[in-house]
Amino acid sequence: MRSSWIERKPVHGPANSPPSLEAIHPSEESTDTEENEEEELGVMEDQRSVILHLLSQLKLGMDLTRVVLPTFILEKRSLLEMYANFMAHPDMFLSITAAVTAEERIVRFVEYYLTSFHEGRKGAVAKKPYNPILGESFHCSWEVPCDRVRPARTNSGPALRDPAQAERCGADTPGCYRVRFVAEQVSHHPPVSGFYCECQERRMCVNAHVWTKSKFMGMSIGVSMVGEGVLCLLEHDEEYVFTLPCAYARSILTVPWVELGGKVSINCAKSGYSATVTFHTKPFYGGKVHRVTAEVKHNPTNTIVCKAQGEWNGTLEFTYSSGETKVIDTSKLPIIKKKIRPVERQGLMESRRLWHPVTEALKEGNVDTATKHKHLLEERQRSEERQRAASNTPWKPRYFIKEGEGWVYHSPLWKTH
Where are the beta strands (DSSP E) in 48-108? Predict the structure, then answer.
C-alpha cells in the first residue's frame, strides 16, 4: 500500500516512543455524559452590537485565523472533540471492511461518510468550537457490539458472519470491538489538527490532517478544511484517500446556522473505484438546505455503481446498479456514545481538562469569566511561542510526525501489524 504522503518507515525507536493509544486502559474510561446541545437562541441585542463592531473592522475575503472572536459564540467543546464526534456511528465504520467486494466496500464507506456529519455538527445553531491550543490532544474510544456490525452480503440467502470476525471480537470487552481515537493540534500557524482512529481487531484505521482556513464573506463566515484523510483496510491491502467539505456560518447577525458546501472526493487507487460527493449550498432564492448528492464510479469501465441524494442531517436515499434502493434517516440512526476518562484523570493538555474552566463558565452563563480563562490560555500559548522563537526550538508534536505535506500518527496499524 502506498499513498502520496504516507511513507511506511519506522520513525521512533522504542526508547523515545511517545505513549500509544494502548496506554489508556478501557477500565479508565466511562461513557461520556456530556450532551453539549446548544441552545437554539438568536443573537441577543448586546451581543449583536459586539458582532457589528467586529464586522466593521473586517474586509471581505479577510483571513480570520488571527481574529479573536467573542466568547459567547463558542460551543463548549474543542475542535479536536468535534472530529471525534464524526465517529458517532462506529458500527457503520467497522462494516466497511466486512464487505466481500471492493465495490461494496467503497459503497459502505460512502454510506458511512455521508452519515458522519450530522452528529459532528450538533444542533442547528452555528456556534464555533474552541480553537485548539498547540499540543492539545483529545482521546476517546467506542465499544461496538459485534452484532451491530453489518456482515458481508452473499449472493444467495441472508448475509453471513465471517467466522474470523467472531474470533477477533471482544479483545477488551467480551462481545465488543474497541475503536480508539486520538487527535492533536500539531501546528498553530497555520492551525493544523491531526487525528487517528483504529480498530485492531478489524485491522483498519484512519489517519487525517486538517488545516482550518476561515474567511469573512459579509453576512457569513466560510471555513475551508484543507487536507486529506486516508482509510486503510489492512485485510484488503486498500487505501481510500478522502477530502472534507467547507463549512459556512450563515446569518451571523440573527439566528446563525451552519451549512456544508463544496465537492469532495474518495479514491481507492488499488481497486479503481472512486466517489464524488457534492454538498450543495442553498441558493439565494428557493432551494433546499443541507442537500448532498454522491456518485460512486468504477473508473476502468467508467461505470456508475451507486448514486445517493438527500440531506446530510436528514434522509439519504441510495440507488445501486442492481436497481435496489435504500433509505437512511440520519436522525434515527442509533448513536454509540464515546468513552472518555474523567476530567481529573486527564493530562493537563487534554481538551476537556484544558478548557474545563471555560466550559464551566459558559454552562453557568458567565461569559466574562469564560473570556478571562480563554484569554489566559491564549496568552500562555503566545508566551511559549516567544520562548521557542528566542531559543530557536521547533515545536515537536507528541503523537504525530510530519511526512511530506501531511501528518501521520507515530505508530499506525500499518507499521505495527
Answer: 74-78
